[in-house]
Amino acid sequence: MGIINSTPDSFADGGTLFQRGRLDVDLALVRARDMVLQGAAILDIGGESTRPGAAAVSAAEEMDRVLPLVERIAAELEVVISIDTSSPALMSEAASVGAGLLNDVRALSREGALQAAAASGLPVCLMHMQGDPVTMQAAPDYTDVVAEVSAFLQQRVDACATHGISRERLLLDPGFGFGKSVQHNLQLLRGLPRLVALGLPVLVGLSRKSLIGKLIGRDVDQRLPASLGLALLAVQRGAAIVRTHDVAATADAVAMWQALEELEDE
Ligand code: 7PJ
User: Reduced to 3 states, what is the DSSP secondary structure of residue 242?
Assistant: First the structure.
């Protein structure tokens, strides 16, 4: 899953797709096409920055940032389009212009989100977050982070079932960096098989995240090698989808794991 940030204030790529305050759809399409050629099966498009401390964005602004690009990609590329949003209105609109997956860091907790996602007919990625993006990194607190994240995700799966979203449509994500200390992130990575055991595909987003900076002191633009290491550790522990800024490098790294898997299957 390649990341396309349709925000002016992304931590990882600094809003490079924004020109004079507007999303440059042509530029974004070039980025999207490159990612598909490099091996992305899914492109994740987001119009709300959820980095720690990020400012809130209105639903209308978020739609303006995302929908024109979704339409262009749907028309021109052969790829599943994922929408990184918590907004029920955007979920519905995106579904009608060609989105193929809803990716909600708030696990459909906003008013109307369960209903909008159900009506869309699309698959949904449910992610765990402790707190909200403004305050989540202030004081993350768990007794047993793996157990608590698992229980939360299971509870959201149940809420989905109640609203007519069956298990076949769901993916799970522990939400690395969303209300987690470095230790919590590492515990979740080590305990990933326990999330995988819930029986749904697990998506992981570790690309360029701040745990790398905290562990080995790398600035955002120096985090690719560690991101590849983390991606492989996650895939080895059962992750089904890797969300990344660096599709070509990640695809190569995962191909090495795959070669080993296929050998073991013989
Ligand atoms: C994630 C995400 C993640 C899912 C972001 C960033 C922050 N969606 N959206 N999982 N992270 N499912 O890319 O660092 O980890 S935005």
Answer: strand
Q: Give strand pairing partners of 204.
A: 242
pLDDT per residue as tens digits for the range 121-130: 999 999 999 9
> If you measure from the C-alpha of residue 176 to the centroid of ligand 1, how many angstroms do you get, rounded to a whole number?
8
**Could you tell me the distance, in angstroms and rounded to a whole number, from the CA of residue 161 to the centre of ligand 1?**
24
Phi then psi dihedrals of residue 100, to 5 deg: -120, -5
Q: pLDDT at residue 52 above 80?
A: no
Give dist(CA 239, CA 202) in Å, integer. 5
67 lines ligand 1 (CB under 6 A): no
Atom of ligand 1 nearest to the CA of 12: 14
Contact 125, 172 (CB under 8 A): yes
Name the 3-class secondary structure at 211: helix
Q: Which amino acid is at 120?
A: S
List the structure tokens of 170: 């769901």
